[in-house]
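Issue 218. Parser rejects a valid record. Input:
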Amino acid sequence: MTAAALNRAAAGPALIPVDIGHAVYAALTDPATAFWALVDKSRIAEELAGGPLLESYREKAGSFANELHALRFALTPSGVYLNPTERCNLDCTYCYLPGEQRSGGSHMAEEKLIASLAKLRDYFRSVMPAGRKPRAIFHGAEPLMNKATVFAAIDAFADDFIFGLQTNGTLLDDAAVDFLTARNVSIGLSLDGPIAAITDATRQTWGGKSVHHKVLAAMDKLKGYGSWSVITTCTSANLPYLTQMVELFHAKEVPTCMLNTVRCTLPGARGVKPADGDMAKALFAALDRTHTLYRETGRKLLVANFANILIGILAPTARRLMCDISPCGGGRAFFALAADGGLYPCSEFIGLPRFNGGNLLAEGGVEAALTSAAFRTVTVRDVDTFSPCGDCAIRHFCGSPCPAEAHEMNGGMEKIGAFCEFYKEQVNYALRLIADGKADDYLWEDWDEGTETTFRMA
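Output the parser choked on:
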């Protein structure tokens, strides 16, 4: 913990003012507990001097601290990313997997995947409540390069896992769609441009051919299915077109999309990294457009990565994604299985051998990996302990993602991620929506079902 943080802790719970760029309201927050409140700017001095807000908060500060600590340090895994092949039929500029793996890597044999899922099933049964199924997401490289093996595994373990599949969409033919939708497998596609020329700037086959039209065809096949989504990776190549992207997705009746900042783990991604300010301007314009479309049509296009930021502010323990908390979900809420049987904290690390925590089918399996030095390097990354994060008012709404890119791009786990200033602006934008009473328009329907209000003050 930094010296400033230690001094604040010794003085007891305190609130820090944050200018969120709103005409009327500012935020008061205690970064140590992720508590926040929106306060009329004219009342800030009064509240900081010991007004009713501070008094009420101090009564609850201990329970808030315990809740946040449990979220950050007491989780056990409930999901796994399965990489059934090292190979991909695309050569995307920003991929986090090395090109030699994607072009000439190996498939996992069916018997090995079946044995792996059996061992994973037994592990999850030992740590999860009875009757609750773990999530198992087939992930990239491109899982449909090993389609027969993947489909056999889904059928063999249909009663044991909630399955999903993330694919580039180019191999998603009618038979594959019928198989996956009949088994209620969630399906994620990737598309980076509203027109082929934009998509092709970062996503092409190894031979340089466009796949834009194939992804659009896959989207048409999935129209009307409840469990599908599309990821757009935001780069300098497509940033000016994010508003057109959400217009396309809305027209195609995409239920959920993600407008993700490019992960800068490998050098190829850093070459297409947008500036933080440009990223913020483009994303907020796209989000504003989704809201206009919702008001005009009554149909939401959920931008899941931003919705998760909102939920992380409104109800920290209800968040659905675990990238924007520190430590992140890698090795805590989930882990990844590579095609060779190796276990990694997250798929983002599969191209980095030092983060291999051991082999699933070896002695010790998951349990040994979770306590390995490779995993611990990730799971003990704590933004409270290094600068500038330790003194940042929004550090637990951001999490300084991603540890893989922080390590590879900026030189260590005690470094910030690639988009520090962008994340600050994203939190400010979210707080402005809350202040204006618009937050629910950007969230899942009934997002607060099952949640409990622990603090409310008019």
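Fixed in the parser; the record now loads. Confidence is low (pLDDT under 50) at residues 1-10.
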